[in-house]
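Lecture 7, part 2: worked example. A protein chain together with histidyl-adenosine monophosphate.
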Amino acid sequence: MSIRLPRGTQDILPEDAVVWQHIEKIAREVCQGYHFEEIRTPIFEHTEVFTRGVGDTTDIVQKEMYTFKDRGDRSLTLRPEGTASVVRSYVENKLYGEANALTKLFYTGPMFRYERPQAGRMRQFVQFGVEALGSANPHLDAEVLALLIEICNRLGLVNLKLVINSLGDKDSRDSHRQALIHHFEPSIEEFCSDCQSRLTKNPLRILDCKKDRDHPLMKTAPAILDFLNDESRHYFEQVKQTLDQLDIAYEVDATLVRGLDYYNHTAFELMSTAPGFGAITTLCGGGRYNGLVQEFGGPETPGIGFAFSIERFILAMKAEGVTLPERPKLDAYIVALGDEANQRGAVLLNELRKQGFRVDKDYMDKKMKAQFKAADRNGATCTIIIGEDELANEQAVIRHMGSGEQKTVAYEAIVTELGESIKGGLEA
Ligand code: HAM
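Predicted complex, written out as structure tokens:
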């Protein structure tokens, strides 16, 4: 039996890994420009982090977690998302005690959800996310969205639609909750068993149900925006105003509720509108979570953040025809024949690498022709040839592969000469 990778996972091979590195690099750079710093948390946590954080009536907690007992009989879970872990760490490490009350963090790493795999939906996927903790200023909501749009633009993603909504504060959500119960209760037996138990526990989750999506009562369900109290309405207005000032285009969608329980006030999703992008169009989701830090035993601390998966960003970049980075080419490939020349080659290789050149040589005792072929295959700009004559004279030949021009140079001049050759082509 041949062993294959588990369903919903993938190998990222070298030609794809360069695209991943590119996205991670740009996202990191933009975050650093916005003064966000990296945090790394464990890949597994105590299960309670997510049942409490994400919410135990959500699909993620009820159906999608990879939960297991360790040998000490503790219930652990492979993280399905990053926010709950970051907040757990924020509280555990008392980051709220730092002089600068605002803590701006970013993270990247694999997340795990037992979902039905399809294009853009994996069981292991990599999220890049940010969390800003410590301020309930609407400008911060706009800053977080500006950061997201900046990452997208730097990656060449332009066919985007930003959808925002407000889930209001606790009072607003309580009135909405009553209205939802009132709306669904008379016909609740027409809904799936999950929705039936959601009715009293968390009726907002009914709006998120994949099975009952097409039930007519879904379309007529009361929208949270109609239940916002003055304070929540005012907050949302300020967020929208700041987005307008920053020239960030958005649409308000009163039906956007998000699949995690911790949200209040601003909630948003970024969709790809690129033609040819698959059925799942959400590239990124996020929002405000003002009660989550208290949920983990910390002081009252508001927070806001988002996460996107690199898998979906790559799909969107491909759908938009963005030129993707290719594997880096070699500066030079050393072609050497015989033991002595190979030894000389090894020393040279070492020296050139220390100077920052990207170089390689043959380790398979290949014939000259095969070595040139390998140089070609690796896209080497130059070859450095060490034959018998060169060896005797302490020299090597540098050949520019594009022009075919070559020159013989003294061994100790190779570092400088190679630099020249790469820069300007060869002058005989
Ligand atoms: P989420 O909407 O569950 O939010 O996921 C955020 C993003 O992760 C999605 O928009 C999508 O890009 C990606 N994603 C989710 N599931 C999968 C999957 N199975 N395969 C591939 N990509 C996937 C959160 O996770 C929140 N923690 C976001 C957040 C941060 N809110 C505040 N701060």
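Residues 81-83, 113, 115, 120-122, 125, 127, 129, 131, 259-260, 282-287, 305-309, 311-312 surround histidyl-adenosine monophosphate (CB under 6 Å). The CA atoms of residues 390 and 396 lie 5 Å apart. Keep this in mind for problem set question 3.
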